[in-house]
Give the backbone structure.
Amino acid sequence: HTYNCTVLNALGTASKELMAFDPVTVTVSPYEIPTAGESFSLICTVSLAEGDSLIGAVQWMGPDGVPVSRTHQTKTNIYISTLEFNPVMTSHGGEYICQATSSAGTMMDATLLTVQIPLPRNSVSREPDASVILRHGDNLTLTCTIQ
C-alpha cells in the first residue's frame, strides 16, 4: 500500500510518500499425530506482501527453544521449509516454531507435536481365548489384557 502525506501552509507545500507492507504470514502444517518409528514432516509456508522479500532463512526452533539443526531441514523453495523426522520418536514431542523475517517484520507460527507409541503386535490377549457357547442366563467374564 502506498500513502501520500501532504502538508500545506502559508509557507508552501511538502509531500512524502509512505509505503506500508502487510506483515509476513507463517503457517505450520500438518496437524496430525504421527506414530513413533514412522517418517514425519512439519511444513512451514511463508507468504509475503507483494514487493516484500525474506531477510535470511526460515528458522525452526524446537521444544527447548533452541534452533533446530539444518541437517533436519529441507527447502522446497525460499518460501517453504520442511522439518523432517526420519523416524519420528516420542522424544521429538513438544512445541515447534517456524519463524520468518521480512522488511515488514517478523512472524512465527507454532505447532505442538505429539507422537503416539505404537502397540506391539500380538499385545492384546483375551480369556477365554476360544469360542464359548452360552445359554440364556449363563454368566461369562471376559478379560482383555494389553501388554
